[in-house]
Design a protein that fits this description.
The protein is built from 8 helices and 7 strands, in the order βαβαβαβαβαβαααβ. With 253 residues, it is an alpha/beta fold. The chain has a single domain, classed as NAD(P)-binding Rossmann-like Domain (Rossmann fold, 3-Layer(aba) Sandwich). It has a 7-stranded parallel beta sheet, with helices on both faces. Helix 1 crosses helix 8. It starts with 7 loop residues before the first strand and ends in a 7-residue tail after the last strand. This is Farnesol dehydrogenase-like. GO terms for molecular function: oxidoreductase activity, acting on the CH-OH group of donors, NAD or NADP as acceptor. Keywords: Oxidoreductase. Belongs to the short-chain dehydrogenases/reductases (SDR) family.
């Protein structure tokens, strides 16, 4: 990780759970970390907690459900730092429900899941790539997906969530191929697929009895996934681990 000391890393969905763990670990390794989240005040709390660490942590309010918010965030990053070396696309959410539910609320929920999990990720990747080119240095995009990017548990009540994660995994390979065709040998991309992680994810999704759900099955912690990110970043520049799946022992899927 020494090769990344002082480099600029952007982490989406950085206010809690996996994202917060990634922000902390990158800062411990001496990186300048920019955390993007709707609840940016939560990242400010992390900044205070980590004030004596090797790296530095900055926060910026960003809603991946809003393209203008994404563009404004990266304009701010460009103005303050001029460049980016690492992007961790971690933001994601799900809403329990039915795809064919015709209510206005469900329409909003479906659009939010698609925008945050996939469309927003496409645009953060495009914006970060532009600033990686400005850096003219080694760079990396890490997409935090899910094991449902390759398998869908039956019966699924997660509506379009698995579809968005399948799309993220496919996009990761599309980006890799575009980099190869463009003779870009400095920037690499990886897809990281976690199994069940004990965060607020299930609670926010609207699933009933989230605590009982987590107690009933094996699970990982956010720090476990963050260590996967550190592993990917620790590989030599000529090594591209394109797919990393991390499951808790006893995972059924």
């Amino acid at each position: 990780m020494d090769k990344w000391v002082g480099k600029i890393a952007v982490v989406t969905g950085a206010s809690s759970g996996i994202g917060a763990a990634i922000v902390k670990d990158l800062a411990k390794h001496g990186l300048i970390v920019i955390g993007l989240a709707r609840r940016s005040e939560k990242i400010d709390e992390i900044t205070k907690e980590m004030k004596n660490t090797r790296g530095k942590i900055y926060s910026h309010k960003c809603d991946l459900n809003d393209l203008n918010s994404i563009k404004n965030s990266f304009k701010w990053i460009e103005g303050k730092f001029q460049k980016v070396h690492i992007l961790v696309n971690n933001a994601g959410l799900s809403h329990v429900g039915k795809i064919f539910d015709q209510s206005d609320e469900q329409t909003r929920n479906l659009n939010e899941v698609i925008n945050v999990n996939f469309t927003g990720l496409v645009h953060t990747s495009r914006e970060a790539f532009r600033l990686m080119q400005a850096a003219n240095d080694y760079g990396m995009i890490i997409n935090i997906s899910s094991i449902v990017d390759s398998v869908i548990p039956f019966p699924s009540s997660s509506t379009v969530y698995p579809a968005t994660k399948h799309a993220v995994r496919a996009l990761t390979e599309s980006i890799r191929q575009e980099l190869v065709v463009g003779n870009n040998d400095k920037i690499k991309v990886s897809n990281l697929s976690p199994g069940v992680v004990r965060t607020d994810f299930v609670r926010v999704s609207g699933r009933p009895n989230p605590d009982e759900f987590y107690k009933s099955i094996p699970g990982l912690e956010g720090a476990d996934i963050s260590q996967g990110v550190i592993y990917l970043l620790s590989t030599p520049h000529n090594v591209n681990v394109t797919q990393l799946t991390i499951k808790p022992v006893g995972e059924k899927y």
